[in-house]
Amino acid sequence: MGKWLQAFLFIAFASSIAAERNPRTERISGSAGDVLEDDPVGRLKVYVYELPSKYNKKILQKDPRCLSHMFAAEIYMHRFLLSSPVRTLNPEEADWFYTPIYATCDLTPTGLPLPFKSPRMVRSAIQLISSSWPYWNRTEGADHFFVVPHDFGPCFHYQEEKAIKRGILPILQRATLVQTFGQRNHVCLKDGSITIPPYAPPQKMQARKIPLNTPRSIFVYFRGLFYDVNNDPEGGYYARGARAAVWENFKNNPLFDISTEHPTTYYEDMQRAVFCLCPLGWAPWSPRLVEAVVFGCIPVIIADDIVLPFADAIPWEEIGVFVAEEDVHKLDTILTSIPPEVILRKQRLLANPSMKRAMLFPQPALPGDAFHQILNGLARKLPHQKSIYLKPGEKILNWTAGPVGDLKPW
Amino acid sequence: MKLSALHQSYLSRRSNSFRSSGPLDSASDAGYKSSAAVFWLILHGLCCLISLVLGFRFSRLVFFLLFSTSSSNLYTPPLRSAAELAKTLDVHSVQSTNPVANNLQLPFPNKTATNSRVIVGRHGIRIRPWPHPDPVEVMKAHQILERVQKEQRLQFGVKDPRTIIVVTPTYVRTFQALHLTGVMHSLMVVPYDLIWIVMEAGGVSQETASLIAKSGLKTIHVGFNQRMPNSWDERHKLESKMRLHALRIVREKKLDGIVMFADDSNMHSMELFDEIQNVKWFGAISVGILTTSANIAESLDRKEEEENPRMPIQGPACNASNMLAGWHTFNILPFAGKTAVNIDDRLTVLPRKLEWSGFVLNSRLLWKGGEDKPEWIQDIDMLDGDVESPLGLITDPSVVEPLGSCGRQVLLWWLRVEARTDSKFPPRWVIDPPLDITIPSKRTPWPDAPPELPAKEKPEMGIQDPIVKHVTKTRTSRSKHRSKRKHETRTDTQTSTRHAEQN
């Protein structure tokens, strides 16, 4: 009896010590539970189609800048899946099918991707897989996923009006799309898509870390354009006027360290700031969110109806501050009226290493990083419903829909 | 171009309206048709003219104001410039003259999904009426920053910080307020507990007491009966004696903490106070030496023309394994014969070989009674003679701990700037009662007062003399310069008025 009591007390004592929280960080529990640390291995199987290298490797060889710009996630996802334990070489047992197309790698001399050929490229790839393997026709792509990290994702255009007019590429209507663009009630975000963060170079950010006891003395920090002088000189179109409003209202405010300059100490300055503004630009998402999370600066998101990366796994409301675009002129009142305890809690949540890892695409992959979060998201959608399997001869997608230019072969 | 969509839709709308008005009526109504066409031509011409004048695509503004929905995009006041104001006024006038424009359909590609509140297209830029910081909010922001930094210190800073005991020798002189205020403000910002021991040569004075009382720190103000001598050598000796006396006070009162020596003319960085918390018994830090004379620049230029003149640094020197290997001291040779001997000399003032301020020690070293004091510390009561530097307090120099990443970080700077011994200054640097003389400033851009007549010059000169007597000699030359410039400007204005009168 005494021995059992001793054993019980020992176990209780040990568990109380183990449960003692490190006050520096806080666990992140999102709407899907504590899923940031879930391990997808064993929960799903992915089959990677072997496409000819003109869809992937040759494009990359033509322009290696694609490996470092913010759309590089599509390339790194392919490389990750090729060597991941979730990959299966037997397509019969696969839950998900991945098509490696580098659609965002046609770059201008200044480095911006042109999306004009991407619809034709995707269409030709899907024609190839639907004719060489039976799995596409079985479900018309409902158990396939594609990585489309461009500005407006599967709409394949950089201008919002044109992207909305085109809509999601018709042949991708049933597939799961992994994209950086996310805005509620928008044509280019369909139900069931997985939003991912844009690519930010992990080694560069890691190399510029400063000691953690450097006091945070900047209140609000932002570096970037307020007016896109080339395309929208008067303002009002770019960022729906929100960035211009930030400049006009707060350029005289010493608490706001905002400017269009590109300093060499950009990463170091972010680590010395309490709030980092992440306003929308031509599209609502930006790599600033990733940088703010990695450097422990609370992101202030100014983009109406935006859907943030891994929104079902990460409780963004508790981590960042959301400001409606119409309230931008009151930004200083909003930020100074946040109670200090709330700010400290947000900083603790940001300090959690699993939060920082979930935003990055490290090479080689680490457990809990963005690749694994994508696989977790795919695993959460399993098992597939029986209704996605089509009866033989049944066709739902219209292969000739869309602008005439898209139907030309690539 | 991103904006071409709107322009194209505008053009297509116009062509649509032309086409729609065509089959509307029969040939008998040719008059109505042509008037509509003419009317559109006139409207188009008017819009083009307005765009020419204002330099802006006017059509866009028409669309924006006429067809944007009520989702509060119309926040026009206050407008950014007079040009925009002119644009809105013109729009209103155009609207009143052609009600036909309102009937047009809008083929605006506004096809967001039905429930979205977010609209593609041009939005207004909201600017509040007073876009300047509110002082209450600025205070709140600073309080937030303080709280965040306190939390950072708790998590990443020094665990169990010890009290810092600061020893400062000082005496009443012209620049005392300047130097002492600098040190005082540095100490007020230090986030740890502080005890400030101020040793004053010449006895406790009201000047110093009132100055340090403003700090709000725990101070021990002790007077020393000797007056500060005029030669630098004697001065250094007296300061060393004063510091030893302060160490005796630490021993008597059994103050617990880290003793550091802050001379009142030195400049300290905040990282210094964080770094000295790491000392165990006896530590040394690197001191940057800022010497004050033009002579230095000349001598350095001659020797190292290509290299940058380096700031001499006193402090510990480490070998590759980060162990104390020796000391960097100040090289006096370049300044042989050119150094200041007395305070009044305008030559360089040099530091000693190793300054007191470059050393910190644990106050327990000074306590009587054994505990776990190391053996290499000498008893201060036994010391009677001059101790040039704290190294004289210890028997074994190799036990000194180098701080600041082994002396590579310079955490404080030494500088000696003093005014002449006979320089005068108003007591406590307060002019009381205030002077009754006002001198018109000749540098304002507003010609509020008429130019002075030459007859008034003499009384002004007379008035200036009493002021000259009040200020110190260093100021006299400056005020003379000032009066010279005033003469020049006065004559200039006189000549200009004469020219004006002639013209």
What does this structure look like?
The complex is a heterodimer of chains A (410) and B (503). The model of chain A has no long low-confidence stretch (mean pLDDT 89). By secondary structure, chain A is of the alpha/beta class. Chain A has helices at residues 2-19, 57-62, 73-82, 118-132, 135-139, 160-166, 202-207, 242-250, 266-270, 288-295, 316-319, 331-336, 340-351, 353-358, 370-380; strands at residues 46-48, 96-98, 144-148, 176-179, 194-195, 218-223, 256-259, 273-279, 298-302, 321-322. Chain B starts with a helix and ends with a helix. In chain B, a hairpin with a 5-residue loop joins strand 8 and strand 9. Chain B has helices spanning 4-24, 30-54, 58-67, 82-97, 135-156, 176-189, 206-213, 232-253, 270-275, 294-303, 403-407, 457-470, 473-502, and strands at residues 164-170, 194-201, 218-224, 258-261, 267-268, 282-284, 286-289, 313-318, 324-328, 359-362, 401-402, 410-414. With 503 residues, chain B is α/β, with parallel strands linked by helices. Chain B is elongated, with a radius of gyration of 38 Å. The interface between A and B is large, with 57 and 47 residues.
